[in-house]
Design brief:
alpha/beta, five-stranded mixed β-sheet, 4 helices, about 45% helix, about 25% strand
């Protein structure tokens, strides 16, 4: 297995949830939520992602793909792919798209189990979603996905 970690991202209109793999690429840990004032302002978001990539020695990026429940791709998927293309252009790293259907539901369940108060959940959902996206990818690489 080559050196370097994997970065997991959950891209939204005003936030990007960020998770990072451990050095052995077994687990995903939540890192932060990058927030921006307006949806179109992604330069600072991309700059922060570049900083994280450099800091953690990231070798690939996993980006959640928000397909519709029936598997079709809408406007959100198009915007996510544009964001992924921007990351690839700026960093030269491969971006792997990961089907994130049901990730938000799973993130909500996880927060309920952690007893995070309902009014506080919005604060964490993007970061937890990024962790779940990355964890799913890591497990698929190891062949441990059920």
């Amino acid at each position: 297995m080559s050196e370097g970690r994997v970065l997991g991202l959950d891209y939204g209109s005003k936030t990007v949830g960020v998770a990072i793999s451990d050095p052995l690429m077994i687990t995903a840990q939540g890192l932060e939520i990058i927030r921006r004032e307006r949806p179109a302002k992604i330069r600072q978001t991309l700059a922060r992602i570049e900083e994280i990539i450099s800091e953690y020695g990231v070798k690939e990026v996993v980006l959640g793909l928000p397909k519709n429940m029936n598997g079709t791709e809408g406007e959100r998927v198009e915007k996510t792919r544009e964001f992924g293309d921007s990351i690839e252009r700026r960093t030269g790293l491969p971006v792997i798209y990961w089907d994130e259907r049901l990730t938000t539901v799973a993130a909500d369940r996880a927060m309920i189990e952690m007893e995070i108060r309902r009014e506080d959940r919005k604060e964490y959902v993007d970061e937890i979603a990024a962790m779940l996206i990355l964890q799913g990818y890591l497990e698929s690489k190891r062949g441990t996905l059920d």
